[in-house]
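Hello,

I think I submitted the flavin mononucleotide job twice by accident. Can you confirm which output corresponds to this input? Input:
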Amino acid sequence: MDKSANTQPAVHELIRKRWSPRAFDNREVEPEKLERLFEAARWSASCFNEQPWRFIVGVRGRDETYSKIFGTLAEGNKIWCRHAPVLVLLAGKKLFSRNGKPNDWYLYDLGQAAAYISVQATAEGLYVHQMAGFDARKAQTLFRVPDDYRVFTAMAIGYLGNPEILPEDLKKSESAPRERIELKNLVFAEKWGENFNWK
Ligand SMILES: Cc1cc2nc3c(=O)[nH]c(=O)nc-3n(C[C@H](O)[C@H](O)[C@H](O)COP(=O)(O)O)c2cc1C
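Support: Only one job matched these inputs. Its output is below.
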């Protein structure tokens, strides 16, 4: 299924092609591809170059990491995630290493790293589906994540599968058109709400 964004004006193909499927194929992700996703994350920008992102990667069939992550997912996410060959937890370091003070931008930086993973995944022919629907506290405990780190999101990674594997309601949303706020309602100049003039 092609759910490429119908962008106006055109944008880079890696941005256009990325979307969040629920129908994942059973096919395994090649280890070298998987490594490149996290290498991409490593080169994301961060406040004071703190690099607050950390990842717990569960590869199906390898060890118990996958099933432990799976066990933290919301029921609604379990329904489709069970097809995904890779599950990841994303955590951020709350304090600056340089002075031990709170880093107010650590979640911003973590999100950027996640975006890099998604874009690199697209370049590899893979898809990423990010999730807030999981028990972060449970994950924090299960993986003994230290208190100065916060487990914040999860993601499923894999190849695109056949929507027929999904229950009826999810099958429908899998093929539904993707919606976005219009650009003119996002980009301002002069004062808030005043359209930026692109010419
Ligand atoms: C932080 C975050 C949390 C999300 N949580 C969930 C989730 O728990 N379950 C789910 O099915 N999708 C989840 N999504 C996926 C979004 O619904 C999806 O990105 C959005 O609808 C836009 O669709 P697109 O990624 O295909 O462009 C999440 C996405 C992000 C970035």
